[in-house]
Amino acid sequence: MEVVEVKKEIAKCARCGKCRSICPVFIETGDETRVARGRITLAEAIFQGEIFYSKELRDYIYSCKKCLRCQATCPSEVNFSLIIDALLEGIDKNMGIPLMARFILRYILPRRRLFDMVIRLISWGQRLVPGQRKGNLRHLPLFFMGKRWVPHLVQHTVLERFGQTKRLPNPKMRVGFFVGCLINYVYPNIAEALVDVLNKLNIEVVIPTSQVCCGIPARSLGDNTAARILAEKNRQVFEAEKLDAIVTACSTCLLTIKRDYLRLLGESWRPMTEKMYDISVFLEKFTQYQPEHIDTTITYHDPCHLKWGLNTTEEPRTIVSRCANLKEMEYPDRCCGGGGIFSIIYRDFSLKIGQHKIKSVEESGAQMVATSCPGCVLQIADLAASKDLHVETLHVIELLSRTLNHGPKSLPAEGELSKVGSQ
Ligand code: SF4
Ligand code: SF4
Prior knowledge:
With about 425 residues, the protein is an alpha/beta fold. Helices cover about 55% and strands about 10% of the residues. The protein folds into 3 domains: about 90 residues, Fumarate Reductase Iron-sulfur Protein, Chain B, domain 2; about 170 residues, Rossmann fold (3-Layer(aba) Sandwich), CATH 3.40.50.1860; about 130 residues, Rossmann fold (3-Layer(aba) Sandwich), CATH 3.40.50. The structure holds iron/sulfur cluster (2 copies). One iron/sulfur cluster binds next to α3.
């Protein structure tokens, strides 16, 4: 990353403090070193050689959720993601990251079969851990991910199950599907729904089996070498197919591939970014669909990376309101507190941030909460289960699949709800 470019962004910050009013981490901690303004001051001091990388500084940087709220609302238009990426890269170069993390990022994530085997092992370990909660959420083995509740990990991944493209006689379009790790290993039902909807609309879905992780865990730890290996692999896989578009149902994968791959792979990647769509944007732009409206009240949660990173808010709402009765919650764009590595390292912050979200969901009175990112599905389902709140959490594409299938006309019974999120 160009230091000149980063310094230019640092200089743009007027120190106005507006980011303090919207940063989810600052709102919970009140700590100036955990908000954009404070982190920019630290970055300036680093670049001027006034301070050095240390464990304390690393904590201030890692505790940024990279939700991009500050960047999207900053009156001085500071590109905060460039600054935080430079700091993360600096941490990796000056202090390194744990050897196990390095090994996973560089040697396991790029090897799909090896990664599948590791997940299978974790899945068996997960079944040995006692303490199942409602909604089929259960602990991952503690040594792997701390106190994180997730649904059962799959035994057969989406890539294994959908490796063969279902050929359509005269398809309207041929579309690639970037699956992403959470959907591949935790939420295959989201992939099933996406393929189902597109096939019903006469769109052929190609799911290349050698696609790998988008690289966000590597980006979050500043290991751009690992991120580049993964980006290059995905580039080869998708460029080898003749595709009219590429869709994904994960906002974080989409932002990583559209924005970060340009930084990692350069401008030659731009034509591919222009072909990439969030599934709801793709459906609204290229298709016409007629779901059967169900008499269920559903509220919608804006994933940070979709709203603040990609400025997409309307298309998922259009889908929800065509399928059911959309009822806005208070602050639908308030962060749910989820988010990969942040929600593992800073579990307490993550839960505190999430309490506001689940309160809004509860107060909306909705029977379901829909969203556009599997990471948010995971977090909101976890929060709901911890409060014993009977609200089904699902992805917008699952809702559409159910209603195009002429599926359930109202909220499933509680017995049915407990199956949500299971394989
Ligand atoms: S990052 Fe933007 S909002 Fe925050 S203090 Fe700087 S100029 Fe103000
Ligand atoms: S990206 Fe999000 S968590 Fe990080 S400083 Fe900005 S608002 Fe706060």
